[in-house]
Design goal:
- Keywords: Cell membrane, Membrane, Protein transport, Transmembrane, Transmembrane helix, Transport.
- The protein is an all-alpha fold.
- It has nine helices and no strands.
- α3 packs across α6 and α4 runs parallel beside α7.
- It is elongated and about 90 Å long.
- The relative contact order is 0.15.
Length: 252
């Protein structure tokens, strides 16, 4: 589980709610019509902008950020070194039997076992990175659009509340609910954009960069094993992807 994402999301909402409670009643910040306008309008607009499949996939990707722990460069390097050790000890063909849940790593092992040309490995890397980026960029764009739509529908709610308020100036009792819609919808839209949608888009963008780096390590490792399957030499090459501090602690 990604503790940073979970902790940041929880602490953000807790601080906002705490500030509200310290200044008054929490119930004052609940308005059903305002929620319908902002939440309903935002998700209706995003379904018009993108195919439903892309919307669902982007939200599943956001959910997976809570469940999946961010992989470390050091871990990927060590995996490739262990694969080099197996290939040196048992031969390249033995890599066909390696079991892994990572389909990219499995493909790399198959290419090594087949003694593929380094150019094929490079081409495969380019295709995998391009496909991964395209898929992730759609998810990032979905959340960026959501971050733009939420405040916009908050303003729409504000206009609706102002119209209702101006239409009933002769009835003082109706001014309060109308003003609540006018103010709270902007509040809802701003909170959704800055505490949910924009942070999630940023986290997805960071995850994309990290996955791209992992792919480069996997395929550079595969190429190195084909050229010279000495585990020490493979590590020396792949350790360049690691921060200097981690290289010292992982030295072989």
């Amino acid at each position: 589980m990604d503790i940073a994402t979970l902790f940041g999301s929880i602490i953000g909402f807790v601080l906002v709610v705490s500030a509200i409670v310290m200044g008054g009643e929490l119930s004052l910040f609940w308005n059903g019509p305002g929620v319908l306008i902002v939440v309903g309008g935002t998700f209706a607009a995003i379904c018009v902008t993108f195919p439903l499949g892309d919307v669902i996939e982007s939200h599943m990707g956001a959910l997976s950020m809570f469940m999946k722990k961010k992989g470390k460069v050091e871990d990927v390097v060590n995996i490739m070194v262990r694969i080099a050790e197996i290939s040196r000890r048992e031969g390249l063909v033995a890599l066909e039997n390696i079991q892994t849940e990572n389909p990219i790593l499995k493909k790399a092992c198959q290419l090594i076992a087949d003694n593929a040309d380094p150019q094929i490995i490079r081409d495969t890397l380019a295709i995998e990175i391009s496909t991964m980026k395209r898929r992730h960029n759609i998810s990032v764009e979905v959340f960026q659009k959501l971050a733009g739509y939420a405040p916009a529908f908050g303003m729409i709610g504000t206009l609706i509340g102002l119209v209702q308020m101006l239409a009933k100036l002769d009835d003082p009792q109706s001014l309060g609910p109308a003003m609540a819609v006018a103010i709270l919808t902007t509040f809802y839209g701003t909170i959704m954009a800055n505490l949910v949608f924009l942070p999630f888009a940023g986290k997805m963008r960071a995850r994309t960069s990290m996955e791209e780096l992992h792919l480069q390590i996997i395929f550079e490792g595969a190429k190195s094993i084909l050229e010279n399957n000495n585990p020490r030499l493979v590590y020396e090459k792949l350790s360049s992807f690691e921060p200097p501090k981690e290289r010292k602690s992982s030295g072989r």
